[in-house]
Amino acid sequence: MEAALPPPPLPQRVQILSESGLANLPSSYIQPPSLRPQPHSHSHVAPSGPSIPTIDLSSSDPAPQVRRACAEWGAFHVINHGVPPSLLNEMRSVGVKFFESPMEQKTRFGCDLAVGPAAQGYGSRMLARDDTVLDWRDYFDHHTLPLDRRDPTKWPDFIPNYREVVTQYSNEMERLAKRLLSIISQSLNLPPSYIEDAVGNVYQNITVSFYPPCPRPDLALGLQAHSDMGAITLLIQDDVGGLEVLKDDQWVLVQPLEDAIVVILADMTEIMTNGAYKSSVHRALVNANKARLSVATFYDPSKVCKIYPAPPLITAENRAKYKEVVYGDFVRSWYGQGPEGKRNIDALLIQ
């Protein structure tokens, strides 16, 4: 029998809280004043302002609505999407059970950041820079596609059906992502498979994020403002709420919608659509009294894939707005510099 490996260290947030308690917020989690949530952000009263669009995928032609939502928001809810509501509930349920488990069980599946910033497993810090303000978040990242990356033995074994639920959820999210990318392509009069073909060999990660109660939600963020790197992100949240998207320089709370899935356009789709559709800048708030859970499924190109504006969208009047980029280079920049809104994709703009 092989000797048991030592458990990975506790997530840094847990270490700090175990030492300092909840009376004060450790300075490493305090956001600069300009990035802190506004006072109204901590209210769970429905905002009077706009919210992201909701699109019924069972309608005869959702493409016009998708086009408008992608151009104006970069994020939208989908309903009647074909994913069983029971599976959405099971995915949230196994996630909650994992994060509520004893620390010694969770750390058995701790991620090893020595292998890279998006290492599979349990952790609390994903960015590489030591000077980054920390997110008030724990997470478990699952590598689910391509199939040769999918290794359920690296996922929790102490929660009944955990591995089966994540596997089924991965398959359903792949199906839905392909359907949505087809609609997005057609909404720009591109061939239905254009974006899917451009993405190539898809890499899918499923990240379950857990945001514990925070003693000072006015000073901290669960996840700092950023746009996602890949093609498209599919997200479900619980009924606590806390996801915000940036629209016209204003933060808009995405109210939880039962059985809906939030669709978030990512940077590579902005490039492929030559800026016709914008990736969504979003962030996660924290709550003083309640924990919050979300599940994000990232649908991304392979690291060697070259991404560039779709040639059919380039004309004499509408020239290419973005440089070609190898996706792996873009990812390294994103993790190396930190997200900070959309500065990484903005660096690819052709002046």
Automatic annotation (TrEMBL):
<keyword id="KW-0408">Iron</keyword>
<dbReference type="GO" id="GO:0046872">
    <property type="term" value="F:metal ion binding"/>
</dbReference>
<comment type="similarity">
    <text>Belongs to the iron/ascorbate-dependent oxidoreductase family.</text>
</comment>
<feature type="domain" description="Fe2OG dioxygenase">
    <location>
        <begin position="201"/>
        <end position="301"/>
    </location>
</feature>
<dbReference type="InterPro" id="IPR026992">
    <property type="entry name" value="DIOX_N"/>
</dbReference>
<keyword id="KW-0560">Oxidoreductase</keyword>
<keyword id="KW-0479">Metal-binding</keyword>
<dbReference type="InterPro" id="IPR044861">
    <property type="entry name" value="IPNS-like_FE2OG_OXY"/>
</dbReference>
<dbReference type="GO" id="GO:0016491">
    <property type="term" value="F:oxidoreductase activity"/>
</dbReference>
<protein>
    <submittedName>
        <fullName>2-oxoglutarate (2OG) and Fe(II)-dependent oxygenase superfamily protein</fullName>
    </submittedName>
</protein>
<dbReference type="Pfam" id="PF14226">
    <property type="entry name" value="DIOX_N"/>
</dbReference>
<dbReference type="InterPro" id="IPR005123">
    <property type="entry name" value="Oxoglu/Fe-dep_dioxygenase_dom"/>
</dbReference>
<dbReference type="InterPro" id="IPR027443">
    <property type="entry name" value="IPNS-like_sf"/>
</dbReference>
<dbReference type="InterPro" id="IPR050295">
    <property type="entry name" value="Plant_2OG-oxidoreductases"/>
</dbReference>
<dbReference type="Pfam" id="PF03171">
    <property type="entry name" value="2OG-FeII_Oxy"/>
</dbReference>
<feature type="region of interest" description="Disordered">
    <location>
        <begin position="25"/>
        <end position="63"/>
    </location>
</feature>
